[in-house]
């Protein structure tokens, strides 16, 4: 089954529906529907359209589980095809768009960027039977530009045109040697020219099946070099992955801010000269004044504490007037003298 076959969904405003509705009687909220074409949907609706998480089962056996927006697959979702192939990744308006992984029926896989249902951007196509992996830039389903092919025992680094290597390149046999040369495209006599139709093979699953008709790539070796790591073309020539987000700078501590403020004050005083000295004297004077006030308050508090026991023993004010016998008491005489 080709990519995208069987993905079309029926109108979600018709068929038998069971679920929530809004004031306008539109399908809104959680619900499920059996469409006239025998497709089935269960999930969220918004103002009559599939919107949110849901599951759509096609009558032919295909199935989509994921996110919807405005009635279309949009967000993260998984699509299972009747032949066993499947896709998991990002969607945009019913198309595979963004990052995703597609596993084909024969076991091959493509993992990378997608655009409008096609391999487009940086990605890797891996053949299950041979283990060969094609890594590089893709454009409308074809490998184009810089890339590499990794075989079990060696790797080719070079440039590609419609899935085929072309121009200068290097075969790297790890820990053994490096062979430099170039690829040329020649007419393939085994294929009739009339079989070549531009664009006819755009929807093929395998890059090999997408080779142009009537053309073959031939390798022309030029020289062999001893293996050296610095001669291996770095993958950095391909579009680099975005760097990791650096950790956020911690906010300065209060102690650091206070220390910086003290340093600024010291600099200002040094530049001010005499003015700085007068400010220092003023600060000392204010400090002494505050200390003097604190001492007076402390003394008043101590005096008050000494008077409290006497006031507590004396009781209310009306009992403070001494009697005739109490006037001759030495204790009261001393107390009156202190007061």
From TrEMBL:
Compositional bias of kind Pro residues: 236-250
A single Gene Ontology CC term: motile cilium
Region (Disordered): 1-34, 188-213, 230-339
Regions of compositional bias (Basic and acidic residues) in chain numbering: 282-302
Compositionally biased intervals (Acidic residues): 1-17, 191-203
GO biological process entries: axoneme assembly
Keywords per UniProt: Repeat
InterPro entries xref list: MORN
PANTHER family attached to this UniProt entry: RADIAL SPOKE HEAD 1 HOMOLOG
Protein name: Radial spoke head 1 homolog
């Amino acid at each position: 089954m080709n990519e995208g076959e069987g993905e079309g969904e029926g109108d979600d405003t018709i068929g038998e529906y069971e679920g929530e509705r809004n004031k306008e009687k539109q399908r809104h909220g959680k619900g499920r529907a059996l469409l006239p074409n025998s497709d089935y949907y269960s999930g969220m609706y918004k103002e009559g359209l599939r919107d949110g998480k849901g599951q759509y089962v096609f009558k032919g056996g295909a199935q989509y589980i994921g996110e919807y927006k405005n009635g279309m697959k949009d967000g993260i979702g998984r699509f299972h095809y009747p032949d066993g192939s499947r896709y998991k990744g990002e969607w945009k308006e019913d198309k595979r768009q963004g990052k995703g992984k597609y596993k084909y029926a024969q076991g091959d896989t493509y993992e990378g960027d997608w655009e409008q249902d096609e391999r487009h951007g940086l990605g890797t196509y891996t053949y299950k039977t041979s283990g060969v992996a094609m890594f590089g830039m893709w454009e409308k389903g074809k490998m184009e530009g810089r890339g590499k092919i990794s075989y079990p025992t060696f790797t080719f680094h070079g440039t590609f045109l419609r899935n085929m290597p072309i121009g200068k390149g290097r075969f790297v046999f790890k820990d053994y040697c490096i062979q430099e040369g170039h690829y040329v495209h020649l007419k393939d006599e085994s294929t009739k020219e009339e079989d070549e139709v531009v664009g006819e093979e755009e929807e093929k699953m395998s890059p090999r099946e997408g080779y142009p008709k009537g053309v073959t790539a031939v390798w022309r070796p030029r020289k062999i070099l001893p293996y050296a790591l610095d001669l291996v073309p770095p993958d950095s020539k391909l579009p680099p992955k975005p760097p990791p987000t650096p950790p956020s700078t911690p906010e300065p501590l209060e102690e650091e801010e206070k220390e910086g403020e003290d340093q600024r004050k010291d600099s200002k005083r040094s530049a001010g000269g005499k003015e700085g000295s007068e400010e220092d004297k003023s600060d000392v004077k204010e400090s002494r004044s505050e200390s003097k006030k604190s001492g007076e308050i402390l003394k008043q508090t101590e005096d008050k504490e000494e008077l409290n026991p006497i006031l507590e023993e004396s009781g209310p004010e009306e009992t403070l007037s001494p009697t005739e016998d109490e006037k001759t008491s030495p204790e009261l005489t001393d107390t009156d003298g202190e007061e």
